[in-house]
Amino acid sequence: MTVLRSSGEWWREAVCYQIYPRSFQDSNGDGIGDLEGIIRRLDYLNDGTPRSLGIDAIWLSPTYPSPMADFGYDVADYCDVHPDFGTLETMDRLIRACHQRGIRVLLDWVPNHTSDQHPWFLESRSSRDNPKRNWYVWRDPKPDGSPPNNWRSVFGGPAWTFDEVTGQYYLHSFLAEQPDLNWRNPEVERAMFDTLRFWFERGVDGFRIDVVGRILKHPELPDNPPNPEWRPGDRERFSQLWVYNHNYSDVYAEVRRIRRVFDEFPDRVAVGEVFGTPDEIARYYGDPQEPGLHLAFNFHFIHERGHEPTPWHAPVLRRIIANAERSVPEFSQPCFALNNHDRSRFVSRHDADGRGRERARAAVLLLLGLRNTPFIYYGEEIGMADVEIPPERQRDPARFRAIGRDPARTPMQWDASPGRGFTTGEPWLPFGPESPNVAEQDGDPDSLLELYRRAIWLRKELSSVRRGKLSALSSDDSVVSWCRSEEGTPAVAVAINTSAEPAIAKLPFTRGRVVLCTNRAMEGLLASGSVELPPLGAVWAIETEG
Ligand code: GLC
Ligand code: CA
Fold this sequence. Notes:
binds calcium ion; globular; alpha/beta
């Protein structure tokens, strides 16, 4: 069994796995996944052999005490565990059990807002002269009684809620149950930094940082300008340009201060949830003298602007890759994900012609073949699709006004039993109709799960794929391809055919061998100069002698 090696910058070569704790594994039959359940499934994630997935780190969506207005993204105590998930003692055991297997643990840090039930907010709202009043953003109504400015909440409606008791509005970028912290107040900064230290001291290896791009707004809180491209019927939150409350310039300085807290502890990593253009994302990395986040998520394979899903189309993928390669500073690297708990799952996004599962196979070679720290979302490795949730079972509070995220949060499908191996009780969200599951794919060499396992374990063997530079190859409308190379090791070419016809991919070397393919029968084939890709298929080919 591997033990945790202390190596700076372990995250550069890591493959990470996002767990939505409610939905991974229930251990006590209440239908809600929990930490004890995750502990039981660690061998699936990495038992040190290629029979397991072989991931290097897990990120847990929030496990803190919370009224669950936004399923944990409304934190009522940053330094404890919600009883649904376990206790601090369970978390300690989980961290230890992970470390014994060489798995690092990232938690989710939610700095932009707390729950309205957090003691800080309860104090803050209790009176205008409470010492914590200024921990949140309170403003007088306009003379006509309306909110202080025109900002809209990400979940719809105004970003302000009037508080009868003290006669002022408070700001909330998300739900009214998620009041925004005032990061201009040094006491807030100090208290929040201490929550990081609390977990670092318990051995946590890093954090995914929730909507970090919103923590600092323009100090005067001016109205946002209207979005000229917005049309009635489009999502309300895009009706204005988020000039003054998103990726506002002061955020970048604050991120560097956050980074310094990470640097108080060895080998910790900060991964930001950020949105924006490639350059806006890249800015979060800071510079070598004054680094910001170690990694900033790039969600452009999911959506680029607004909410439209990114098409699976070679020129689009090529543009996203090229932009990331161009903009992310050389001292770090991109960080891609194809799925997360906020968006429709990959298989469903690309299933208009019923071939989403084929594309999901090619996506494995894309995600793991890029120069990046990849994040896999639980269930992605077995091709879980969105589950249609009947109205009476819907749980996501954003469902009325925003995107309805329940379909991508349904319980992990471990087997075909009534509880799907997830629970002995009634699951918090329905399983949906028959679905791919781990048991049926385990050991089937043609399954998606085994393709993920092969790709991840192969990546461990091929240092050019883990850390080589990326050079783009000439590509056309059907194929996007690139080469990963590192001095002294064989180069690896990656080619993805996004068309439904076979296609030829040129190789950057004279002779090569297919080491990984969406169609397993092609693995081992020798290729000279080029390789023929199956429809919607993909290959990794390694440079060979001669
Ligand atoms: C992030 C989370 C999302 C949450 C929101 C508010 O976007 O991923 O689930 O609702 O922040 O915290
Ligand atoms: Ca449980």
